[in-house]
Amino acid sequence: MRVPTRRRDDADAKKGIQEETMIKTLSTEERVAIARDYIARVFNGGNAERAREFFTKDVVWHGGALGTVTGVDTIVPILGGFIGALTGIKAEVQDVIASKDLVALRLVVSATQTGNLVGIPATGRRVQWDAVDIYRVRDDGKISEQWAFEDMAAILSQTGAAKLPWAG
14-30: per-residue pLDDT in tens? Predict the structure, then answer.
């Protein structure tokens, strides 16, 4: 949807003339496509550096137990460490919920833990967990905020870093 706005430059302002410009508003479907593309290229593609193509410079990443981080230059190395520790990472979208500028993806993520993962030494074990990621997608197609909820209990249990009483 295009929303007309009025803009005046200095010469036109003197004459009382306004210029019409168009600002594109992304549809919900376009925002969902951006979030899906991010998952495909960054996680499934195993390339944290590509996150720079999707994030604003001042993006805010809320990582739950991992804390909140601001700025693409801070987030990309964190993503790199996470993705780098998980060979063959694959995030499969199970459900999508979107409203206004927010897109929520429910994912099942699987990989083999071959590197240090949030302080857990490489185990060579297969891990699989549920995740919910919520993205704020701006009208310019950039992600300005992300909430990442990973099932850390499943990750810790499957890597042997924690024994869950209900997991046997």
Answer: 555 555 556 789 999 99
Q: State residue 33 phi and psi, 5-degree precision.
A: -60, -35
The values of phi and psi at residue 47, to 5°, are -135, 90
Q: Give the pLDDT confidence of 106-141 residue by residue, as tens digits.
A: 999 999 999 999 899 999 999 999 999 999 999 999
- Give the residue among 106, 54, 108, 104 at the shortest CA–CA distance from 79: 54
Instruction: Kindly list the structural domains of the chain, giving each domain's residue range(s) and its CATH number in brackets, ordered by start.
Output: 24-160 (3.10.450.50)
Give the whole-angstrom CA distance, residue 125 versus residue 103. Answer: 31
> Model pTM?
0.84
